[in-house]
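Every protein is a chain of amino acids, and every chain bends into a shape of its own. Below is the pair of lines this work produces for a single protein:
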Amino acid sequence: MRRAIMRRRATLFAFAAACSAAVVTLDSRVPATAADVSDQVVTPVRTIKGAMTGLLWPSGVAVDSAGAVYVSNDGDLASKQDSVTVYAAGANGDVAAARTISGGRTGLTRPGGLAVDSAGILYVANAGVSGAGSSVLGQDRVLVFAAGANGDVAPLRYITNDIVTPKAVAFDARGFIYVSNYGAMVNAPNSITVYKPGAAADETPVRAITGSRTTLDTPLGLAVGPHGDLFVVNSGRVNLGIDSIIVFAPGASGDAAPERTITGDKTGLDVPQSVAVDAAGYIYVTNFGSSSITVYAPNATGNAVPIRLIAGTDANLGAYVAGVASGASDGDLYVVSRSQQPTTEPSWVGVFSRSLIVGH
């Protein structure tokens, strides 16, 4: 198992090294965006960045109903402690986190995707793989922290059953919990597992989506849309596959085929990392390969042209563009960026106005 993990991680880092650290221009495969928004430059309205923030190689981001911003920090890659930092609503500039969850009791090991429920309870996809490429036995799980958790605190509970190298976590309107599992990282099947609200460690999933018809391929991010559809980004080219956004019908289970797929040379997808869907159904995807965000219409399918490409100097995105979240109250877009050198260069969170992105 250790050798398999090391091979997978070597592939990921080899691809990362090949990507440009500074150039965030539109490559020849990506089309111009739709005419109604193509001439409008999108710049962040706020940026959380600086030495006081505690941001270190951030991966996932979530926003609660009050506007507080949660960021998972994969400090292990920089030989530092993993953490979740929490910023007050409206935070801007070089500000200290209002809370920081970190320490041995937390169980944080390569934290990734985050989700916060209506009661403020935090769910963390904990990959359980160290920066050295070795597995931390039994630590691939979803950690569940109490509302207001701070410091070196133990989780309220955790979910482990059928979870293998989890990358993202999300809720639907009824509170069911969705987890994307990059099982292929350890020579296991890729899957999406679904748990009832309040699930405990040994909880059997109420549903699991897995199998060849699903086309799951390096499923790094997921989101539940306003109508209960499940959106998953496949970072397929990490494994010489195809980058795509696959959308499953509400209630999909087993070896279910997606109800639609967004993929092709016009989509602008370039090693996608994370996905968010707002209340109107607009789809936002971060792309590692081109340091960009692509935005799609709610009904997008097939080789769909994005309605907006956010990239370039004005967008202030890093060499690594990772997690993305849509604010529940304002619909604004929260994006974590990181540099190539986590120990010497800063990481940050950029906040983009939804009205500037989709035009209303």
User: Anything to note?
Assistant: Residues 2-358 form a domain with the Neuraminidase fold (CATH 2.120.10.30).
